[in-house]
């Protein structure tokens, strides 16, 4: 069943979009990630223009993150003070990211720019995840090995220190602002929530407890991606609500299956599978960049005057 997407200006099979949303929903329930870093490349493969895929993916992340953060609030695993500091950096980063996005779009290079960003970040993150997962798998087979204690780093020596009671930290506000800013830029340019970078940064850089990290990350992601969506909708007009609804419906159903499957697998196995999936998507995007396209020439309606 073909459906016309008015903003993307393409006709796509509705069941294909539901399937993409369902697949990302399964991944979300299976691996505990928002899936924004995978849903955007999958939309590229389905023929959705990158500008629309980025803006609409950010919109989809807002809806999926709201329900998740409510559960964390009930369990009191959200550090609102840390989330607010991250949010300040995230909003500034999002505004800067949209400026960069609009500039690259005015040059006619936004498709290449977004694809290159995905190849670089997915390749780096997927590679690091794969190596870390292999190490964790080896450690799990040696129960007698004790983990090394982390020493205080630069984050504990910087000025402007604040006390974050729920996280049990007394650190400088500068690193959280920098982390939030970086994630805000990524959200605007790549259409991701940034959790795949923020969560490791909060654990290993800021030293936050794992049980508080997810809820605090989601709290920040909601506002940053909502702000990003608003900026894209008002400046670029690239948010396709018909596409977002189909992705949401598929995602809600897929998440239920993913959570059931994930409960039957070991954490180390799940991380290795996710790393391999990320690397596979990175490889496909990289391959598309170097192979000769089927259509050498294309028309840009915005460039006709």
Automatic annotation (TrEMBL):
Highest taxon in the source lineage: Bacteria
Listed Pfam families: TauE (PF01925)
InterPro entries from the UniProt entry: TM_pro_TauE-like, TSUP/Inactive_protease-like
Ranges that cross the membrane: 12-39, 51-73, 85-104, 110-131, 177-205, 212-233, 239-258, 270-291
Membrane topology note: Multi-pass membrane protein
PANTHER family referenced in this protein's UniProt entry, alphabetically: MEMBRANE TRANSPORTER PROTEIN MJ0441-RELATED, MEMBRANE TRANSPORTER PROTEIN YTNM-RELATED
Protein name: Probable membrane transporter protein
Native source organism of the sequence: Pelagovum pacificum
Lineage: Bacteria, Pseudomonadati, Pseudomonadota, Alphaproteobacteria, Rhodobacterales
């Amino acid at each position: 069943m073909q459906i016309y997407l008015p903003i993307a200006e393409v006709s796509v099979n509705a069941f294909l979009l539901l399937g993409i949303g369902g697949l990302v929903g399964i991944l979300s329930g299976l691996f505990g990630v928002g899936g924004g870093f995978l849903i955007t490349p999958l939309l590229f493969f389905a023929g959705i223009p990158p500008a629309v895929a980025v803006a609409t993916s950010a919109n989809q992340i807002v809806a999926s993150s709201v329900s998740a953060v409510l559960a964390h609030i009930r369990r009191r695993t959200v550090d609102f003070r840390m989330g607010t500091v991250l949010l300040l950096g995230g909003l500034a980063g999002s505004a800067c990211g949209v400026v960069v996005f609009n500039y690259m779009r005015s040059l006619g290079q936004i498709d290449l720019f977004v694809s290159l960003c995905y190849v670089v970040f997915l390749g780096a993150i997927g590679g690091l995840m794969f190596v870390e997962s292999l190490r964790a798998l080896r450690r799990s087979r040696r129960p007698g090995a004790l983990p090394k204690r982390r020493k205080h780093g630069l984050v504990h020596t910087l000025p402007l220190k604040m006390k974050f009671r729920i996280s049990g930290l007394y650190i400088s506000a500068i690193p959280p602002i920098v982390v939030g800013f970086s994630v805000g830029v990524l959200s605007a340019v790549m259409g991701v929530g940034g959790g795949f970078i923020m969560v490791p940064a909060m654990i290993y850089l800021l030293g936050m407890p794992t049980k508080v990290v997810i809820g605090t990350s989601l709290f920040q992601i909601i506002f940053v991606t909502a702000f990003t969506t608003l900026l894209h909708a008002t400046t670029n007009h690239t948010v396709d609500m018909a596409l977002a609804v189909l992705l949401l419906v598929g995602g809600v159903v897929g998440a239920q299956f993913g959570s059931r499957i994930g409960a039957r697998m070991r954490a180390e196995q799940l991380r290795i599978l996710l790393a391999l999936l990320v690397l596979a998507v990175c490889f496909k995007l990289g391959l598309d960049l170097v192979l000769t396209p089927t259509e050498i020439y294309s028309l840009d309606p915005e460039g006709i005057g």
